[in-house]
Amino acid sequence: MPFIVDLTSGNVEKEYRSSEKGHYGGSLLGLRLMRERTAAGLDPYDPAALLYVAAGMLGGTAAPGLAKAVFLAKSPLTGVAGEAHALGPFAAGMRGAGAKALAVLGRAPRLSYLLVEGGQVSLHDAGDLRGLGTAATTDALRARHGAAASVAAIGPAGENLVRYASVVTDRAFAAGRYGLGAVFGAKNLKAVVCAGDAPAEVADGEAIAALGAYYRESLATNPLAALQAGLPGFAGWADDPIAPGYASVRNFSVPGAPGLRVPSARDYDGRAVSVTGSCPGCPNDCLKVYGDRSGGLGQEAFLSLGWNLGIDDLGTILAANARCNDLGLDVVSLGGTIAFAMECAEHGLLPGGPAFGDAAALPGLIEDVATRSGALGDLLAEGSARAARRIGRDARAYAMTVKGAELPCFDPRPQPGVGLGYALAPGGPRYDALEHDLDFDPVAGLAYCFPEAARAGALPAPAHELDEERGRRSARLLRLWSGLDALNLCVFASTPTRPLTVDHLTALVTAVLGEPFTLDDLLAAGQARLDELRAYAVRETGGPLDEELPARLHDEPITEGPHRGAVLGRAAFGRARAAFYAELGWTPVKGGEIS
């Protein structure tokens, strides 16, 4: 199934893995290839490191929830497997060009791009694209290979090996986390271009059409789907106040009233570049583009580049998001690293460093990081965990990281399942690794989704409650969404809170592949993906895994509002962690082996 591409020699071969069951051509297959084809302890920038890009057997199909592509490699930020997903048209572009997956090894002798067209893969010079942003790179490559070509590109951040550089697909849709853009850069790979319009084959087109019609009708009845479809959109934080403790403010250092403004929906008026058609085949339009053509707005951008930095000016935040996408920077790690620097400066550990609330300084900081300009830009390009080690003294206390990756800006103190996910997900902290605790609160939650959650073993419980059952429940939800990731199914369309219920998902996979597919199959894929990620992490670290949250989250309770008193007590968190492990069949790691 995957094309095996050696950038050093230019050789391309196809490896047939269709006889293997259960990998669905997605991240599970990529993880197996990483294990089989790379040596333990390899530097992420070594030419022998493997980069995997895949639509898989389902991604890119013209159907709701199937517009996801996966990017996978050993992360330069965490040192374990880094997996990021891009929505938008790129997965359909891969399928249209005749590829389900690419496994890329070696290093091109000069800056190059891969062209996938008509089921063939070739390597081309990209010297004239050096230094260009992702939008200009996309424009130039579409001028060569057709306006409908799909492009996954890096910007200057990837070329300069910023450890959290992103890959950006089709100008606005980022595969943001864990520094996969830097892996592109280390391989001298500027872009992957997919040209062609062959539709992804499905076994039952009528069933796909019926599921699409159902999803379209559900936009009026499912509150989260309606929020995603409407304006300013799912990522357009607007109007409703954000309760103290729900989101990070000034590097998680403000446990009370944030003192920052939430924009109104009208503040977004006139700023949209595109609000429809983001994911081919899906009736919803979750991803809006604001500011300029690079401004695809993910849900984390407002918090990461705004409140986490003490900034609430919407124009500044939208412009920063667009510039990050064009330069190829993950907004979560960039925001977390700048927030770390701001708190270090506040405590006298980084003289001349940036200050919370300084919106005017943000554009320059972003440019300096992407180009590694000056001592500060070069320092922050390493991420906050490495920067803390360089600074020394008490700086480590202000690096809000797990496994070296910056935490998303949803505060886990009121949502301990989120905290368990941040700490224990074997690929590193992600906000979309599992559905959040507040959705299942018996009083404040989304009651319509309780029956669906129960099918995965997650019964309603007060959101703040941290006990062994919280550990088991969170592990079950992690397994469920891991299954979605393994198949390249969109979590923002799927169970338990979105329109595609378990029954719709199993019918969808069956309709595409033509083989029976059940909830047990989905959970088995989720468990297998988690096990592969964890085994790879054990192999690469050679010792105990970093599964510790920053001390602040255990020691500093929320002080105001409906989440007052919420904190991740260490003893309770330890018991929940043990239950989480037991649910997934894991045991603690000692001496590089699973004991």
UniProtKB/TrEMBL annotation:
Keywords: 4Fe-4S, Iron, Iron-sulfur, Metal-binding, Oxidoreductase. The keyword NADP does not apply. The keyword NAD does not apply. It comes from the Bacteria. Its cofactor is [4Fe-4S] cluster; tungstopterin. It is an enzyme of class 1 (oxidoreductase). Gene3D superfamilies: Aldehyde Ferredoxin Oxidoreductase Protein, subunit A, domain 2 (1.10.569.10), Aldehyde Ferredoxin Oxidoreductase Protein, subunit A, domain 3 (1.10.599.10), Aldehyde ferredoxin oxidoreductase, N-terminal domain (3.60.9.10). GO terms for molecular function: 4 iron, 4 sulfur cluster binding; aldehyde ferredoxin oxidoreductase activity; electron transfer activity; metal ion binding. Belongs to the AOR/FOR family. This is Aldehyde:ferredoxin oxidoreductase. It comes from Nonomuraea thailandensis.
